[in-house]
Amino acid sequence: MSENDILLPQLDSDLLRSFLAVAKAGSVSGGAGRLFRTQSAVSLQVQKLEEIVAQQLFDRHGRGVSLTAHGEQLLPIARQVVEALDQAVIAMRAPDGKGEIRLGMPEEYSDTLLPAILADFSQEQPGTRVLLRCGSSVEFPSALAADELDIALHAPENVAADDIVVHREAAIWAGSAFHEIEHRRPLPVALFDRACWWRERCLDLLQKADLNYEIVCTSESVAGIRAAISAGFAVGVLPQSAFTDRVRQLPDVTLPQLGETALVLTRSPAAPTRLADSLTAIITKTLRALEPRA
To answer: For 254-272, what is each residue's pLDDT tens digit?
Structure first.
């Protein structure tokens, strides 16, 4: 250790975190909000950091703060240090056997719920590999039975004894937000073109309602059905969570009521217990957050 190492004041990573938060927010109050600290506490930390480096790091003005030239110089260094420390904690906290888990998820949730689920799981089980299969709910029971999946979120026609019901969602007749075609006869309808109990239920209900309809579009994916609906080419059935701002619920009372569908979690008996427990809890929490509060 050199004499300079002893004499130089030491930088605290907590000071660098406050510096980064203020720089990103463009104000001390905004930085304090990001850190869940008081404005005065963060202001004191920035002041202490400036005293340690013997440079002014921010220009103060009425609208907030902006980095000085010295602040710009410190910024990439602070980011590198904080990132390195965070990665060290993640690496040290990770279990020796990182493991992997195979998850089946309906494709309609792949761009809505899935990112939040994966983000929480990566924090809780850092380093674990997730083998993801996005597809149709109808595929997952056989995949579980064949030991191709450890856990699956799906909407079965009938809930089994081992299934965990995590959400119930209405199946809704949907039409384009920009076109009104629901009064046409024959009614243009978009349906899945694969073996699917929802397809069979829709066809059965349409026939029982004695409704004049015509299947004008079929698709293997929810994305294809949703595209046909949003374009005003057809009406179709979607879960509420698959709606976008280009799709609206149809008010037409002549259309048959579809009822609710149960979204369940099914686990393979051979699933790794620790990872499956963690993923089950995260998926359950994410899905139940969708339920309206009483």
So the answer is: 788 877 888 899 999 999 9
Task: Kindly report, as residue ranges, where domains of CATH 3.40.190.10 are found in the chain.
Answer: 100-167+262-288, 168-260
Q: Where in the chain is the domain with CATH 1.10.10.10?
A: 3-93
The fold of 3-93 is: Arc Repressor Mutant, subunit A (1.10.10)
Q: In this structure, are residues 176 and 230 in contact, taking their beta carbons and an 8 Å threshold? A: yes
The CA distance from 120 to 57, in Å, is: 35
Q: What is the pTM of this model?
A: 0.57
Homologous superfamily assigned to 168-260: Periplasmic binding protein-like II (3.40.190.10)
Q: What is the pLDDT of residues 170-211, one digit of tens each?
A: 788 999 999 999 989 999 999 887 666 778 888 888 888 888
**Number of residues in the chain:** 294
Written out in words, the top-level CATH class of the domain with range 100-167+262-288 is alpha beta
Which stretch of 16-25, 113-122, 153-162 has the lowest confidence by average pLDDT?
153-162
**What are the two backbone dihedrals, phi and then psi, of residue 236, each rounded to the nearest 5 degrees?**
-165, 180
As given in the structure block, the two tokens for residue 195 are: 């073996």
- Give dist(CA 292, CA 248) in Å, integer: 19
